[in-house]
C-alpha cells in the first residue's frame, strides 16, 4: 500500500498542507471564486455538453420506457495540472513503451524471438483470445500495429511525500476518450478564459491534425494521396459521439460496414459520385466483427473481404488486426522485459507489481490476501469483472475466491494502490477525489502525442474506479509550459 498523494497539496508537517508550486497561481484564483459562481459554471457546462450531444451509452441500463440510456460524462471544473518537467519524462516513457509494444506485436506474428528467448511463455500468446493466427507473416506498413494507443497512468505516494507514476494498463486496440480531452479543454477556455492568460497551458487542439497526419503516413506505399475514413459500428455504440467527432475534426468520412465493399482485393466506399477507393481505415470496430468472411460470420458491422484486402497490402487498418495480444492484462506483466529485449533500455515508466494467478505461488498469495488486493479479469474492461479487496464485502470476496479456484488463468491481482487525489468540485464543495490519466500516443512516421491526456476522476468518495460506465467523470489536463 502506497502513501496518499494529492496533486495540488503537499504535506508541510504538523498536520498542515502546502500548495504545490505548479498549482499556486490556480489556487490563488480559486480562493477568490464564490461557490455559487462555480455551481453556475458547472450547470452551464452541462447544458452545453448536452446541446452538443457529448454523451455515451450505458450498456444494460434502461430508461423508464425500456430504451437504452444516454448519459453525460460528468465534467469537473478543477483541472489536473502537471508541471513541464514531469510531462517531459512521462512523454519519453510513453514513447519507449509504445515502441516496444509495437515491436512485440510484430515479433509475435513473425519471428517470435521473445518466445524463443523464454521471456514470454508460448501458451500466453497462442492460447490468448486476442491472438489472431490470420496475421502470421502479414507485413504492415512500417511494422506499426498500434497507431493510436491509450496508456492508463496512475500516481501513488511515497514515504518521503513524493509521488511515482505507474502504468496501470495499455489500451492498444480501439482506445477511446480523446474527444472528451478535446471538449474539456474547449469548455474550460469558454468558462474561464482569464485562467489561460495566467497560465502557459500546452495546447491539445491540434490532436485531430496529428491523428490525420499519422493515419496518412501509414497508408499503403503505392498511394500518394490516401483516402482515410473512420469506421464505426453505428450510432448505438457507446462511443459513437467520439467516432463522429473525430471524423468531422479530421475532415474525413464516417462510414459503417455497409458503406464499404471489396473488389479485386481493394476496399471501396459507396458515394453519390460512385465507388471511391479507401486506403486507410481508422476502425472503431473490434476484430471479431470486422470481416464476416474471416471472423464472425453473423457480423453486420464489418465488410466482407476486408482481411483479404488487408493481407494483400491494399489497405491499412488502424489499429491493426491482432493488436489486442499486447494489451491483454495477462501480457501486461511482461512489458518491462519487452522494453529491455527489443530496445536494450530500462523502463522509464514502471508497471504496478502484478501477481499472475495461473502460477501456483502467485495464486496462493492472492487467495491468502484477497481482502488487500485488486483482482482483475485478464479480458475485463470498463471497471467490470474486478474485485477491489479493501472495499469488498465478505460475500464478494468469497465469490471471487470461488472464481479464482475454478479458473485461475482468467485473473491477475495487484496491490491496492492509493491513487493520487485531486481537488474536485462535488455537491458538498471542493473535496479530494481519486484520478488517473490516459495520454494518447500516435505512432506513424514518428511517435508523438499532445501534452497531457484525459484525466478521469472517481466522483464517489473513496472510490478508486474512474471509469465513466461506473460513475466516473473527467477533468481538463493542463501541462504547464516552462516560462
From TrEMBL:
It holds the Pfam family CP_ATPgrasp_2. Residues 79-458 form the Circularly permuted ATP-grasp type domain. Gene3D superfamilies: 3.30.1490.270, 3.40.50.11290. InterPro entries: ATP-dep_Glu-Cys_Ligase-2 (IPR051680), CP_ATPgrasp_2 (IPR025841), UCP005522 (IPR016450). PANTHER family: BLR5612 PROTEIN (PTHR34595), SLL1039 PROTEIN (PTHR34595:SF7). This is Protein with DUF404-, DUF407-domains.
